[in-house]
Design brief:
By secondary structure, this protein is an alpha+beta fold. The chain is built from 15 helices and 21 strands. It binds flavin-adenine dinucleotide.
Amino acid sequence: MSDRQTKTDVILIGAGIMSATLGSMLKELVPDWKITVFEKLASAGEESSNEWNNAGTGHAALCELNYTSEKPDGSVDISKAINVNEQFQVSMQFWSYLVNSNLIRNPQDFIMPLPHMSLVQGAQNVAFLKRRFDAMTSNPLFQGMEFSDDPKKLKEWIPLIMNERTSKEPIAATKIDTGTDVNFGALTRMLFDHLKTKNVDIQYKKSVNDIKRASDGTWELKVKNVDTGTVERHNAKFVFIGGGGGSLHLLQKFDIPEGKHIGGFPISGLFMVCNNPDVVAQHHAKVYGKAAVGAPPMSVPHLDTRFIDNKKSLLFGPFAGFSPKFLKTGSMFDLITSVKPDNLLTLLASGAKNVPLTTYLIQQVMLSKEKRMEELRAFVPNAKSEDWDLLVAGQRVQVIKDTPAGKGTLQFGTEVVSAADGSVAALLGASPGASTAVHVMLEVINKCFPQHVKAWEPKLKEMIPSYGLSLMNNPELLHEVHSSTAQSLGLSSVPQPVTQA
Ligand SMILES: Cc1cc2nc3c(=O)[nH]c(=O)nc-3n(C[C@H](O)[C@H](O)[C@H](O)COP(=O)(O)OP(=O)(O)OC[C@H]3O[C@@H](n4cnc5c(N)ncnc54)[C@H](O)[C@@H]3O)c2cc1C
């Protein structure tokens, strides 16, 4: 144990997109607050936020079929899609503010314009997609979306998917050109570089191992130097647990009532990646299909163009899987050590309910490369095994908690858990994920600093012009936000043409 002990205003645990976002927002709101970051890995954005550990979809509900559902009367409920879209617009505005204020540069290094498409097959699915298109395009948020069930048109939009397609089944797609591919790893690193220039103390290879309340009411963190094994003590008035999959274990150490009766269920992700330039050149979109029966919502199959390090590649997946680790770099004991007396019944109830899901995930893990290629060929009929490699992506830890729907209910969204006195907040869950980081961090700010929010409002409005307003209900503001963010983030450029095979 070292004698070193420090006191600071804010500690952020973990150097992923969430801590990066909260740190950047707080530095704008209260520049003189002292912020320290502890990250157990050697650099920022190495876990789920890393560009190869997630799909890089700027989730704005422009293509994800799981954000809309069919009501018993056949009409389509788009309320979730509206929420996700509004939340993504909040991120876009904050990123634009950072670029316009020269706090980060070269937006093309982290965000690229890319058409977002939904694709379905079969008469029933085609009819649903058309009803969904009608419902969405009657809302100002989704203006510009197109629908086609004409194979000729689809061949223009998605030649790689349509070429050599022999199936005579009806097929249809929607397409909207205002979608994006986001390199969340690059953005995370940019934000931490920016925070360094603002005197934020960022300490890598430092693992937060224990926490207790100090006599002066601050939180005392025991932080281990991963290289030397030395343990230091650091105190803060406010702690944000941005440990990604590691957040649940950290929350449990805080021993606050709000953190009880919560469990976690890890779902791993695998992608197939293609770097063959001839194949890559034939596709320019993110194309989301329908999830298989029994599959969790985050494993909706999609074929995406990715822009990473100025290089285009294709990603297909994700294939969900089961691993007891809560982080990609985590331990095989993560799941078992997350079981505590207070969440045991919640986890048991969930285990009993989710046998089919666990079975599905285990089956997914066992799939051979050829079996995965068969799933890919439903998208790309002439996909060749030698063009595609398997890529292990990040872990998502889904929240399990007791809800009015029942004990041990598996949640597929994100949850901000905070202490009643606002001295600590944790982010659990991972969907819609990094895309909505700014909205979620606003929730942290509102829950943990209610006494400051009124005074911070003018700055919040400068950073996020739609702060406190619904864009859907303010079409003029929506138009302004669309054009100004597209301009600042360099998204107005003409889409690249797709090569016809
Ligand atoms: C397969 C997959 C696909 C996804 N696709 C998308 C997508 O297309 N679009 C989207 O918006 N989102 C997507 N997501 C979700 C998105 O990646 C996450 O929501 C987001 O990256 C989480 O960021 P974070 O900062 O909370 O966690 P992370 O990026 O995981 O960062 C947490 C950090 O905390 C550190 N840490 C943990 N414990 C400790 C400790 N005790 N002490 C010190 N440091 C610690 C970790 O080392 C890590 O660096 C996807 C996720 C997965 C897994």
